[in-house]
Amino acid sequence: xxxxxxxxxxxxxxxxxxxxxxxxxxxxxxxxxxxxxxxxxxxxxxxxxxxxxxxxxxxxxxxxxxxxxxxxxxxxxxxxxxxxxxxxxxxxxxxxxxxxxxxxxxxxxxxxxxxxxxxxxxxxxxxxxxxxxxxxxxxxxxxxxxxxxxxxxxxxxxxxxxxxxxxxxxxxxxxxxxxxxxxxxxxxxxxxxxxxxxxxxxxxxxxxxxxxxxxxxxxxxxxxxxxxxxxxxxxxxxxxxxxxxxxxxxxxxxxxxxxxxxxxxxxxxxxxxxxxxxxxxxxxxx
Length: 286
Hints:
Layout: H1 6-24, H2 40-46, H3 55-58, E1 69-70, H4 73-86, E2 91-96, E3 101-105, E4 112-117, E5 125-131, H5 147-153, H6 155-160, H7 166-177, H8 183-198, H9 201-206, H10 208-218, E6 223-229, E7 232-239, H11 241-250, E8 256-261, E9 269-276, E10 282-284
Antiparallel strand pairs: 1-5, 2-3, 3-4, 4-5, 6-7, 8-9, 9-10
Helix pairs in contact: 5-8, 7-8
InterPro entries: Transposase_MuDR
Domain Transposase MuDR plant: 64-112
Pfam families: DBD_Tnp_Mut (PF03108)
């Protein structure tokens, strides 16, 4: 009986180790022979490809993978928050800076994601490591469901129903996200949605002079005046030339004053000079 050759055994063991390293690499096992002088096309083909996160298709129901790429840390953080809302769990972000961001479950389960810039492209963020398994219970008081999030995700409902009550908002969030919110959060969400739909009053006030120029360009001969005290807006007078000409041409020579209170942030009153046309209907003049 021949004695085993130790050199042959060492060679076999060495080859076995090489095979194990190839399984753990990004390239996997390939049966093709690679030449020493490989072309750029072969390098591109052998380079691993990673999934890129898409806001339009992935943001409402995020599914993370190791190696997934993001446009920025902001996009990654938003995806983590939406993931927590969808899976009814509270996520924490720590550390959270310009070099790396780690997301993990609040209740201490193994789930975590470690995100940092890619070595080849510092503007692209990539999930470098993580554990995608949850071992915690659902958390029905989720701080990720904030007033800002509700306003943006239920914006069309607020548009269709401007008088949506707080009780209805609470019930909608409880049914869709399985999360309980307070009445204060519901009222804040409605206020934010109203501001998004109607615009910010302060920004609108800054554009009054642009509005005046637009009216004078489209309605020549109109009278538009402002009253300001030390640069602060006090009042505005508008009389469009077509309305003035229509009153003089076909309305009774009676002018009345109508008014209402403005239920806006600044309040005040809106006064209108009105007449009566040939059909006994109110005709606005100024």
